[in-house]
Design goal:
The structure holds 2 protein chains of 2 kinds. Chain A is α/β, with parallel strands linked by helices. Helices cover about 45% and strands about 10% of the residues of chain A. In chain B, about 70% of the residues lie in helices and about 0% in strands. The chains are: A alpha/beta, B mainly alpha. Chains A and B meet through α1, α17 and α18 of A and α2, β1, β2, α13 and α14 of B.
């Protein structure tokens, strides 16, 4: 009987332990690792490689790989698809890098992961023998792939925000933020919401808040990764969002919107202006439930006195330092940026190209009329902070921007806290 | 003599028999071999537990005393963190962010600043949901224990919410509590359920209660069914009212099962992750300790290990208090069940 008394605590401890070990074991003791493989080795290596990328929903990667393989039978590329969840792709890459897997030769990285992976020493610096000519690429995409003045990845796909607007209600789209706000009376007379973006507390809010701050001349971090957000310009930018929400120009429910809720509201005809990514265009044109099929158009994001500074999305291809065939991996990455592939990605997969000339290609514009607008957006785009501590920085931005929009603290306080929290994220 | 003689002899014999050395030795040997056998048989289990439980825990605890890798400003690359002492723990418990001369309180917008909020949110959820689930679960169990037509159907249908995966439940309630969702439409309200603090908390509590009350009801029902009908009949004969029968018979007799049910639910809610993670993403002060751990993993694994160790200790203490002072004992309840 005595032993029984201890059975339950022991059992409870066991159950708890399982849940704890699930937490502790998840990362597999990788935290202490640092420094990467040899960045000087295998630079000339040619042979079969694996190209790791997120789930190929648009079915554009395999045909591209096939085209390469037909031309390079001795340097075959194998495609490895991850899941379509960004967090899982990130963690999958981390695990393979930690185990120094030479089987992950060329990997697709989201623009906001580049600095983290580069600082861990997992990405091959693209300089000297591995140098890439980036003169034909859009500058913002190159900047997002650059850490510590060194290029660490080849931009492959880009993305930028655009302003969707109702051309039946607003014949000429607003050029500036203040102009857009003055048009909100039109929304009021039509009993619809005026403007929405992504204001729920998640990565989308970082994108939107960074756009507001950058548009009005603020800078979140400097080139060395130090917080520089505590400026009059940044307060001005965030203040615009806060004012718009307070005045009801951003509808009350706007604070719960992610991309999809905003798209839904816009397609239902309940919004005059919407900031969203290019993917909305085709859906709003073709969705059976869309009430704005023929009554919407796109424009560059409104700015201070010209186009606004979009946050940059997209992916780059990075060569692993653990790869045995770095020359092949780099050649394939360059191959992905060639006009033929970029055009194919844009036509078949609606993926935004990283080269300006593709956006104005007649065939592309005929199929996707928004492309020239998107080009303006990406030409004015500012990458989100390039820092190895991105998860902490994005949290600092989200939390404080959210509090400010909800009126829980003043804009000045929010920006000051943002500055302190970015500096503490180390 | 002849009549007396056998008695002492037999007594002596019995005594001698009891203390007979060879006999005791064989019994001991049997016990020893049996013990050895037992260990041999348990060994695979112990090894397995060691690999899947002890090793990760010890590893997590060791990691929690290591610094997270920091950036070398000269090269821009990460360097090993080294030994941290209790820094990772003081970071959470005493709200100390940064390192060296920059050490100071955690500014809003860092995970460290959220620790005590997350702790109180977790306990708030625990107390409120467990209380509601106990009352509602008891009520459902009493109904289910009665005999009536369609009882099997009621019992089966009550279990449906519990059988739905939590992530699906969370998504369902996320849509229902959307601004233009069914809840606001039905009540003609304009509440931002997932966009402001108290509505968000209540939305999560409602979802959790909806989902797990059946579990509570089932455990209590099992306890109710062990109470023999005769006890109630006897009480009725003695003229006890329905309330007296409930407080004097049902409650004390169902207590062991009830305590186990409450213990299970408490431990479950203390590590709640999926409902708030999906419904609010932890916004509006609905971040629980588990969500904080997962967020921290992305920002530094060693610090996350410290946080999960703290969480572990907290949950363990709660479980200990339950078992030690409130008499929730799953094993005893199981043995009474057998009788």
């Amino acid at each position: 009987m005595k032993t029984r008394k201890y059975l339950l605590p022991a059992a409870v401890a066991g159950v708890l332990a399982i849940s704890l070990s699930a937490c502790g074991g998840g990362g597999g003791g990788g935290g202490t690792q640092s420094g990467g493989g040899d960045a000087g080795a295998n630079l000339e290596g040619r042979g079969p490689i694996t190209y790791v990328t997120g789930k190929d929903n648009a079915a554009v990667q395999q045909p591209t790989v096939d085209r390469w393989n037909a031309a390079h039978p001795d340097q075959k590329v194998t495609l490895k698809e991850q899941t379509d969840k960004a967090d899982q792709q990130h963690d999958d890459l981390v695990q393979h890098f930690q185990s120094k897997d030479p089987g992950y030769d060329l990997v697709t990285v989201d623009v906001v992961w580049t600095a983290e992976f580069a600082a861990k020493g997992w990405l091959q610096p693209l300089k000297d023998k591995m140098a890439v000519d980036t003169s034909a690429l859009l500058p913002a995409t190159v900047k997002a792939a650059t850490y510590n003045n060194t290029l660490f990845a080849v931009p492959v796909h880009s993305d930028g925000g655009m302003l969707y607007y109702r051309k039946d209600l607003v014949p000429t789209p607003p050029k500036t933020w203040d102009e857009m706000m003055s048009m909100c009376s039109i929304a009021k007379t039509n009993k619809i919401g005026c403007y929405a973006g992504q204001f729920q507390k998640y990565e989308g809010l970082t994108v939107n808040a960074a756009e507001a701050i950058n548009t009005f001349g603020g800078k979140i971090v400097d080139d060395a990764g130090k917080a520089t957000v505590n400026s009059a310009e940044a307060k001005d930018g965030l203040g615009k969002l806060v004012e718009a929400y307070k005045a009801g120009n951003i509808p009350t429910e706007g604070i719960t919107f992610q991309e999809e809720q905003g798209r839904q509201a816009f397609e239902d005809g309940k919004l005059l202006f919407l900031r969203n990514w290019p993917y909305v265009y085709n859906l709003a044109k073709t969705d059976g439930s869309s009430k704005v099929k023929d009554t919407f158009a796109v424009a560059p994001l409104p700015g201070k006195d010209g186009p606004g500074a979009s946050s940059l999305g997209g992916h780059s291809a990075a060569v692993s330092v653990y790869s045995k065939y770095k020359a092949t991996a780099l050649d394939f990455a360059k191959f992905l940026t060639e006009d033929e592939q970029q055009k194919f990605f844009a036509l078949k997969g609606s993926l935004a190209p990283v080269k300006a000339n593709i956006y104005t290609d007649a065939e592309i514009v005929a199929k996707a009329p928004y492309m020239p607008t998107l080009l303006t957006s990406i030409q004015n785009a500012v990458p989100r902070p390039v820092t190895p501590f991105y998860p902490g920085v994005t949290k600092a931005i989200q939390d404080n921007a959210y509090s400010a929009m909800k009126g829980e603290k003043s804009v000045d306080q929010a920006i000051a806290d943002m500055q302190a929290a970015i500096d503490a994220a180390k | 003599m002849s009549t007396e003689a056998p008695t002492p002899t037999s007594a002596k014999e019995t005594l001698a028999g009891a203390h007979h050395m060879p006999g005791k030795e064989s019994a001991d040997r049997r016990q020893v071999t049996q013990g050895r056998w037992a260990y041999t048989l348990i060994l695979p289990t112990l090894v397995l537990l060691g690999v899947v439980i002890v090793y990760p825990i010890v590893n997590a605890i060791i990691m929690s005393f290591q610094k997270d890798s920091g950036l070398d400003p000269a090269t821009g690359f990460f360097t090993e963190g080294g030994f941290a002492g209790f820094d990772n723990y003081t970071h959470w418990l005493l709200q100390q962010c940064g390192s060296g001369p920059a050490l100071g309180p955690c500014p809003p917008g860092t995970l460290g600043a959220q620790f005590w909020d997350a702790m109180s949110t977790t306990f708030f959820f625990t107390i409120v949901t467990v209380a509601l689930e106990t009352v509602l679960g008891f009520w459902m169990a009493v109904i289910m224990s009665r005999t009536f037509r369609g009882r099997a159907l009621v019992r089966a249908s009550v279990l449906v919410p519990w059988a739905i995966p939590t992530a699906v439940t969370a998504k369902l309630f996320f849509f229902m509590f959307a601004f233009e969702g069914i809840v606001n439409t039905l009540f003609g309200s304009q509440i931002l359920w997932t966009g402001s603090e108290w509505p968000a908390k209540w939305a999560i509590i409602i979802s959790d209660v909806w989902k797990t009350t059946p579990f509570m009801a089932l455990l209590i029902l099992a306890g109710l069914q062990l109470i023999p009908d005769e006890v109630y009949e006897a009480a009725k004969v003695d003229g006890a009212t329905a309330w007296q029968r409930f407080t004097q018979i049902t409650l004390p007799l169902v207590k062991p099962a009830l305590m186990v049910a409450i213990l299970f639910r408490t431990l479950d809610v203390l590590r709640m992750y999926d409902l708030p993670a999906i419904m609010t993403g932890g916004a509006n002060n609905t971040t629980t300790l588990s969500i904080l751990v997962v967020d921290q993993i992305r920002q530094g694994l060693n610090n996350a290990s410290a946080l999960s160790t703290i969480t572990f200790i907290v949950i363990f203490l709660v479980a200990f208090i339950f078992v030690r002072f409130l008499g929730a004992n799953a094993v005893d309840a199981a043995t009474t069940g057998k009788k």
